[in-house]
Amino acid sequence: MLNRLPSSISALLDSRTEGHSLPAGLYTRDDVFAADLDVFFHRHWIQVGLECDVPEPGDAVTLEIGSASLILLRDDDGEIRVIRNSCRHRGARLLDEGRSIVSKLVCPYHQWTYELSGELIHAPHMGMDFDKSCRSLKPVHFKSIGGLIYVCLSDDPPADVAMLEAVMEARLAPYDIRQAKVAFQFDVVEKGNWKLTIENNRECYHCSANHPELCVSFIDLDFGFDPASLSPEDREEAERHQALYDARTREWEADGYPSAAIEQLAGNTTNFRTQRLIIAGAGESQTPDATAASARLLGTMTRKDAGDTHLWGHNSWNHFMGDHAVVITIVPLAADRTLVRTKWLVHQDAVEGVDYDLDKLTSVWLATTDQDSALVERSHAGIADPAYEPGPYSTFTEGQLDNFVTWYIERLRAHGY
């Protein structure tokens, strides 16, 4: 007798067992992928870039999100804008994907010309009575939160992004990411579903066996453990570590660095979590020896031991340290393909070879990204196997995965699936 699989997305959602990974079809099916793009990448706030991606007037970056194309630019007045990359004549793309320097936005097809504000200023051969004022380029809802650019492609963006904005403007202020610069960017296309990329990021169950470089600065106790499996000595160590966290958090906050964990996860529309984490070893930065990679600290930072302010959303994760920041965003390309874009930020006046060594700056997350890419590919291949059936999450180390997929199902349901 054939195994009858749920035919609709709603039936797939119904078949999920609480505390378990998702049914295979929610990772592998093309109709689910289309729904994911529509709901999570068009109707929710997503992190797409940085103010410092476009440091000067005329700088522009084109971003592709499914069939949608956006232009992030800095206009002639130095203001950030995000606009649709579609000419108001017959829809042709204005700019190719990647970086550009422009004085005007000129459509290559029929030379309709726009100011960097999006205003149409030239439409040849359209007649004297043609009204250019109603043909400006379409703007996109966006927010710069501490220098991180979030967009929502919906006409009705979720209002609860206000919590993210309020929390992170204060936390990111000392790093002054708006005035940082991108020292390096690395793109990789993972051979797996975007949700597997996010799930992999939200647990460190796999870290000790797969990320030797990252574990120099990460503390495994931060990511959960089974108390019953610990020896009396390890249990005492865990208790000491928690006491240290409590003390360090009080110290950081007394010095003006907000640090306590803040979460807006399942039960909300906009998904994020932030906390200042202790850095292991030398305690300064996510580098091969956990010491600072850059002698020139970010923004107004005066200390190298202020931990790692981590921030994640449903398409991003970020680490802000005294000397540099690592900003990672993802964009789904297909049900089994996900773009992972990593940027390393340093102070805008830091000089490579003088203030920082590029290899020391980037090597930990380059290695970690490659390792994670292989793990996501391995996971997706296994889920696509007919033998796959959803397995239970560890309540000790994978609670945030259960939280994420619960939120994922809630949001699909909220949009009619």
Written description of the protein model:
Keywords: 2Fe-2S, Iron, Iron-sulfur, Metal-binding, Oxidoreductase. Its cofactor is Fe cation. It contains 9 helices and 17 strands. It has 417 residues and is an alpha+beta fold. The protein has 2 domains: 52-143, 3-layer Sandwich (Rieske Iron-sulfur Protein), CATH 2.102.10; 145-414, Naphthalene 1,2-dioxygenase Alpha Subunit, Chain A, domain 1. Strand 14 and strand 15 (316-320) form a beta hairpin. Helix 5 (194-201) crosses helix 8 (358-384).
Task: Quickly list its features.
globular; 9 helices; 417 residues; alpha+beta; four-stranded antiparallel sheet; Naphthalene 1,2-dioxygenase Alpha Subunit, Chain A, domain 1
Helix content estimate: 25-40%
Distance between the termini: 29 Å
Q: Assign the CATH superfamily of the largest domain.
A: Naphthalene 1,2-dioxygenase Alpha Subunit, Chain A, domain 1
Which series of helices and strands comes N to C?
HHHEEEEEEEEEEHEHHHEEEEEEHH
Radius of gyration: 23 Å
Give the helix tally: 9
Main beta sheet: 7 strands, antiparallel
So what's the overall shape? Answer: globular
Q: What class, by secondary structure content?
A: alpha+beta
Organism: Aurantimonas aggregata
Protein name: Rieske 2Fe-2S domain-containing protein
Cofactor: Fe cation
GO molecular function: 2 iron, 2 sulfur cluster binding; iron ion binding; oxidoreductase activity
